[in-house]
Each structure stands twice: as C-alpha cells, then as structure tokens.
Amino acid sequence: MTNATAIFDASVPRPLGAPHVAEAYAPANIALSKYWGKRDTALNLPTNSSLSISLGQLGTHTKVAPADTDHLSFNGRAMGGDATAAAKIWRFVDRFCGVNRPNLLIETTNTVPTAAGLASSASGFAALVSALNDAFAADLPKETQSMLARFGSGSATRSLWPGFVRWNVGERRDGTDSHARPIDANLPDFRIAVVLVDSGPKAQSSSEGMTHTVKTSPLYATWPTQAEADCDAIEALVRDGDFGSVGALAEANALAMHASMLAARPAVCYIKPASLAHLEALWAARRDGLEAYATMDAGPNVKLMFEEKSRDDIIALFPTAQIINPFA
Amino acid sequence: MTNATAIFDASVPRPLGAPHVAEAYAPANIALSKYWGKRDTALNLPTNSSLSISLGQLGTHTKVAPADTDHLSFNGRAMGGDATAAAKIWRFVDRFCGVNRPNLLIETTNTVPTAAGLASSASGFAALVSALNDAFAADLPKETQSMLARFGSGSATRSLWPGFVRWNVGERRDGTDSHARPIDANLPDFRIAVVLVDSGPKAQSSSEGMTHTVKTSPLYATWPTQAEADCDAIEALVRDGDFGSVGALAEANALAMHASMLAARPAVCYIKPASLAHLEALWAARRDGLEAYATMDAGPNVKLMFEEKSRDDIIALFPTAQIINPFA
Known about the structure:
Chain A has helices at residues 84-97, 121-135, 142-149, 206-216, 223-240, 243-262, 273-287, 311-317; strands spanning 22-33, 38-40, 45-46, 50-66, 71-74, 77-78, 104-110, 164-167, 180-182, 190-195, 293-295, 302-307, 322-324. The first copy, chain A, has 328 residues and is an alpha+beta fold. Chain A has two domains: 4-182, Ribosomal Protein S5, domain 2 (2-Layer Sandwich); 190-324, 2-Layer Sandwich (Alpha-Beta Plaits), CATH 3.30.70. In chain A, strands 1, 4, 5, 6, 7, 8 and 9 form a seven-stranded mixed β-sheet that branches. A four-stranded antiparallel β-sheet of chain A has the order 11-12-10-13. In chain A, strands 2-3 form a two-stranded antiparallel ribbon. In chain A, helix 5 packs antiparallel against helix 6 (243-262).
C-alpha cells in the first residue's frame, strides 16, 4: 500500500495475508460542530471540518474472522447480502481488501440501544475498519483507518478515538488529508443527555437531506465558511475547558445547520414539534440559570450538553433523558 | 411640499390649513414575499422588496377631526399619550403635520379581531396617513402616502391598496422611491386562512428579531438577494395567475426568513411546537394532493394560502382557521 490512494480502490489487489480472528470496538459520537455538505461525493469529502465527542461505552463491537462463506450479523441476527445496509458494509470490506478478498465472518454488536436515537453507522464503520486492520495485520496508522472509515460514513472518521475528536476538512483532491485526529481537551465533566422524540421512520435520510440542502437552499452558501470558523473556535474552547462557550457555540452551529435545511426548497425539517418543545424547555431553564445547551442531528432527537454538576437539574427537567458520561 | 424629503421632517412647518373631519379605511396585509432587514433604520428603508395580499374587509378605520385637545382612541377606548403605541402614533402625526400641528381627535377602529393573529400596525398607519391626507386636503399621491406610512411601519406601505401590492426596495438614499404600488393580478380565487397558535405574549418584537438576525445570523448574508429574486418571481407569477407556483415560492420565502432567524446567535424562533404541527399537517395533506401553502410572520400563527375550490378541505383540516376572502 505504498500508493496512498490505492487503498480506496476495491479493484486493486492488496498484499493481504490470510485473516485471523480480530475484535474491535469504536464509540458512537455526537458532533458539536456539524458535518453538513460534501465537496466530493465519490470520496465522501466534506465541505467543512467537524468536531465531536465520542460516547465512551456506547458504540459498536465488531468481530472479523476467516470463514468458508461470507456471513454478516448484527446484534446476533444474520443480515442478508441484499439488504442496503449489508451491501454497503460488504462494499466497504471490498474496498479495504481489494479484489482478492477472502470470505469473512463479520459479527457486529451495538452497545447503543437501537431505541437510543443515536446513529450507529459512525461507530459501526470505525469498528469495522479497526477490526479489518487487525484481522489482516495491516498495521495502518489510525489516521489512515479514519480516512478509510470515511467511505462508510463521514462521521465514522471521528469514531476512531475516544473523547473530543476533529475531522479536518483537508485540502487534497484525493482526500488523503481528510481524516480525524484527537484533541487535547480539558472538559472532564462534559456530559450528554439524549432526549428521545418518537417520530416514526425518517422521511429523508441524512444523506438525502444534505444533498438536497446543498443543492437548493439559498441560505447554505455561507454555511461552509461559518462551520469552519465554528469548528476552529470550538476546538480552541474545548482545549481551554470553557464549557459554557463550547455549549453555546455548538448549539448555534447545530441550529444554523437546521436553518440551512429549513430554507431548502422544498424545506427539510428534521425538527419535530416535540423537539421544539424540548428546545423551548431548555431555553426557558437557561434563562433561569441552567448551564445546558442542545444539539440536533438529521433526526428529531434532542441531545443536551451539560456538566456533571447539572445532572440532577437535567434529570428533573427531562426525566426520560438518557445520561451519557463520555469518559466512563 | 416642493421638497420631497421635507415631509419626513417633523421640525419643518407645513402649509397645512385647518383640518376638517375625515375618515379612511386601510386593509391589513399578509406578505407572500417578506420584508426582513433594514438598510436604514431612521428612514425605515428595507434591504429588499416585498409583496403582499391585502385582506379586504379586515383592516382599520380611522377618523381624524379638529379638536381642542389631542385625543386618541382605539376600538372606543382612550389611549394615553404616554403608552408606547400612542406615542408612536403622535410622532407619526407630527411628522405629517410638522411643528405647526393643530390639536386633533383620532379615532381608530379595527375590523381585524384582536385575537385574529394579524398585525394591525400596517392597516393602522396606512389608514392614518390616508385620513390625515383627507383631513388636511393635502392631496398627496398614493405613492407619497405609502412612503409616509413607511415611517409608521414598513408593511404599512403596502396597505394603501387592495389586492396584491409590491413595496419596492428603492435605490435612493433619501427613501423617496421606497414605496408600494398595486399589481395587476390574475388570482381572483386566492384565499387566506389564519390558523391561530396561542402562545402568550411575544418574547421579541418583530423589529427586535429583525435587528438581531441581521446583526448576528451567519445565514442572513444571502437573504437580501434571494428575497429580491423571490419578490420579482412572485410578482410575475401573480400576474400570470399561477397559484401553485406563487404558493410554493411564498412558503419557501417565509421559511427562509425563519431560517435566517433560527441561525441567529442566539436563535430567534417565532415558530412554536403547535405552529410546526400545523405545518406538518399541511405538508402531509399536500403530499395527498391538497394545493395549499403556508406562510408565517414574526409570530406563531400559521397563514395558509389556497384557492376557493379547496375551501372545504382547508376547513376539514384546520377547523378553527379563520377564512379570509381578500376580494370580498
């Protein structure tokens, strides 16, 4: 793998030996500064950097092992190769292994409850690339694994590390500098609470919503520059341990992303009436002195950011919220 | 009044004779292409043109008469000169009359129910300028009255005419070309339905929300250009009688305005959970074939645009909605 871009190409043979059994874990993550917009769809390159907090024990365990025939399971249930999700996973494995890929057993188990309202594709692809790297003794640097994980899901780039992680937008056209790196942080009391909003299946996938927004929203034009500035600022604030400023800016960044969607033609609106009611409750509590902030992704659930000292207040205000300690 | 800008200046004497009793009516209006942002606060000049439909019989009747002492009443109740609204009205009268203003009786009656969720400042200032013009036999052209109404409320420029009206942004620094004009329209079946959302008093006035958005929203930058393009397009579509395209574009324009607010730092959000629930109900009905669209102003109420043929469907979907025929 001397040619850096050859590892992107499923049609190129790899000098991989026979695989051995390997297991890996990767955490889910929640972006404080959002990834929203691609500059290259084929390479899954973003228009702006993003920054997330990994969710500690909530994530994906993946086992890779040699097998007589390909077999893929998710939480103990076999996934047929035809299903969209399974096909995407095998395409990802092909990309890693090249045309000379041996048959494999892949067992995936999520510690994120399916009902938790947290995306599992980020931890899934991060755990998969990590397990493949071990199984084939490929010894790829973490940054290269992050770059590869990008082909499965943009946010997977960030799930290769615990704690605060930045996915740098990169400059190269081949995407070899568009991967994540961990950030030296000073926010040990940072916590997340997920407030679930039951809304049935999503009307639009995040990828569809993103493409449609970039293409049709007149307000998207200023997003890439603003998002990059937000990411830089949040990184500096995370290093400084300034929780209040991190939270306020992360909330503003998320709302700007949703605003860019609301202005799409026609509108994309992942915010549901119940999501907005939770945001209003938060804003009212904040006016009363609670130091907590919200972020939302391409779905209806509200994710709160707060510090350990506010745990009781958060539970009192949002009794159904799932509290997550990213550092536990 | 040979100097066009002298009529803006309350300190300049006017060659006005003694007033006689005069009555005038002006309709409320709902913008299909929104006014959002000022390029000059003192002159109340907008950053973009806007276009509205006047609401027929819903508006303001105003009587102006000579009096021994100033007296102002609203819906039969005396308004003291100290109240903010009253002070603004008298400042407006001073601007019209100049320093040599005689004492006046001003009686204002709204035919818009106070609970209707429709702003009355537009019809109020339009009726007032019209009544003052008659009372003093000033014989100002309608365009000049519209320009003057602007000092009371930007949207008042458009309430000088029935039907579809465009307030042109204008180019002159003195604002003398920033007034409204009627549009030859071909949409006789155009109807409005107001769906009320009870939300208590507004957290922020529309003027505060506008100023804060222009100042802090990173997504506002593209609004003025887009809003001007929307206004031009909606004007052409109104002339063509293309209801579906008018509705879709008016909805997109309104959501873009609200999106610019959501991205303000901190966010301005006039959309309430119940507003969003109404929007979702509308969007679902539209997927099922209903040709109706929504617009919202700086408040929680949802205003639907539809054609007479859809009246029964609108009533079935939104039983509490107030139906308005702008041409009745």
